[in-house]
Amino acid sequence: MSFLETTLLGAIAGVTIFLGLPLGRLQRIDERVRVGLAMFSAGILAFIFMDVTGHAESIVAATLGQFKHGHTSFWHVLWLFALLAAGFMLGTTGIAAPSGG
């Protein structure tokens, strides 16, 4: 998936969240519409997460292959794995952290 496609899907998810916030407060909107918007944006975000994670895993795997053939150091592989792990932990912590309000 290209950067443009990822950006477009992120924008679609953001628009559904942007629309879903005020629509969620309106009493006249059907509950199914609110749930549908939430599930649509969650599905797109999950797809983007899996796509980005797959690309990150392939970078680490390619570097591991280079290490096996003696073209890079172990520390480079370890650094990329640590970067992937730290990014995953920070991202999931940011999602799970309670808001300040």
Structure write-up:
The chain is mainly alpha-helical and 101 residues long. The chain has one domain (3-96). Helix content is 83%, strand content 0%. It has three helices and no strands. It has helices at 3-25, 31-68, 74-96. It starts with a helix and ends in a 5-residue tail after the last helix. The mean pLDDT is 82.
Structural class by sheet pairing and helices: mainly alpha
What's the helix-strand series? HHH
Strand runs, count: 0
Question: On the 0-100 scale, what is the average pLDDT?
Answer: 82
Number of domains: 1
Q: State the helical fraction.
A: over 70%
Give the overall form.
Answer: elongated
Sheet with most strands: none
Tell me what portion of residues adopts beta-strand conformation.
under 5%
* N-end to C-end Cα span: 36 Å
Number of helices: 3
What is the radius of gyration computed over CA atoms, rounded to a whole number of angstroms?
19 Å
Low-confidence stretches: none
